[in-house]
Specification:
This protein is α/β, with parallel strands linked by helices. It has 13 helices and 16 strands. It is globular and about 70 Å long. It starts with a strand and ends in a 5-residue tail after the last helix. The structure holds adenosine-5'-diphosphate, aspartic acid (ASP) and magnesium ion (MG).
Amino acid sequence: MIVMKFGGSSVADAACMREVAALVRDAYPRSPLVVLSATAKTTDQLFAAATKAEAGDLATALALHAALIQRHRDLGRELLEGPEPALEAAIDELAGELDLLLRGVGLLKELSPRSMDAIASVGERLSTRILAAFMGAVWVDARTVMRTDATFGTGRPLPELDALAAAILAPLLGPGKAVVTQGYIGATAQGLTTTLGRGGSDYSAALFGAALGAEDIQIWTDVEGVLTSDPRVVPEAQPIPELSFAEAAELAAFGAKVLHPATIQPAVEKGIPVTVRHTRRPQGRFTTITGHVQTGRPVTALAHRGPVTVLTVASARMLNQSGFLAKLFDVFARHKVSVDLIATAEVSVSLTVEADAPLDELIADLSEFATVGVARDRAIVAIVGERLKHTPGVTGQAFGAMRDINVEMISMGANEINLSIVVVAEDARKAVRNLHQALIGGGQS
Ligand code: ADP
Ligand code: ASP
Ligand code: MG
């Protein structure tokens, strides 16, 4: 079997839905499991409606609800050439549920991650109902399969999902038909709705694919694969035909939105190739991500992510003092803050954390044994390539490209395929463009 995941832009309107249906039908002989995102902008609108309700503006929240439901009703009616009773009933039910949820949030003026997940789940449940009705495909509620822990907002998948996929999805799959389910959403063992975090449908696709032993996990989106850089920053960015799992993981972790950062892991574990393709150009170029890629290019792609905050922790006593780093990281662990980049000097350590990390608490604890410098609004620019370590001169070229940009921190990843540079956030785009020009150029393909 194969997994075909379609992102929001691939199911934006009736024309897109028809293209998706055609691609899925072409894949019927390969027993496709279709994993769908909410339609374009829907998840953002659900977040907006929930935030309005929490702020006490229930009128706006309900207006957003009405518009969103109408848009889906219209989409369904256009595809099915009129109201189809089963689909209308499914949409009515979801509309009623969303209405109750928003009113509840509005009454309490409280929006917990748990409530937000319940509200967000409506997007994927709507889009999948429509595609399944249009295709006459089997619809499965992903919450019966995608078992997660109760970390609402960023649910972590649990091993039970493998057995659930084997018991629930596998018997429904087969040549000549498709099964349609939702990306992004899951549920706890108690049946509480969770989500895997924004952009999580890619991760769902990989988890389902790994659980079912898929031959291929296809991520269908609005670009011809993973490109050498974010095309919104570098218009001449080119598709990368082959990418290693490690490169893809680094790019995703350092901001390449095309793949959710956790996507690759389940595929790596099972050795299943992941392909990234353009829904509107199915015959076009695409990227294959596999375990072994032997190519000659020193730099595969660039990614960037920000804003991040750089903390510089200095202790006069660090000199020759063992245990300083243990104490330091203990503070980050206690506050559940993950550290991305680290650079050490004789008496100080610089590290980057997410912009929304609890800085006051961190600084209070760190100040007990060190002085802390804080630099906000920084960005990480990552240069990624399997052969980076074997290619002398790349670093020199990279620094040449950065000659008129202030570099604040540098870190070579321990896997030696990622050279990361920290700059002031407003310099990030320029840094990426300069580096692309110097290290990749316009014509790689
Ligand atoms: P989907 O809705 O299909 O999940 P996303 O918007 O999440 O699509 O991801 C696709 C987008 O990621 C592209 O349109 C592009 O703007 C952005 N992007 C950022 N970096 C890259 C990259 N290196 N390669 C391709 N796309 C990228
Ligand atoms: N619909 C979700 C989001 O917008 C999940 C996804 O698109 O992958 O974040
Ligand atoms: Mg996405």
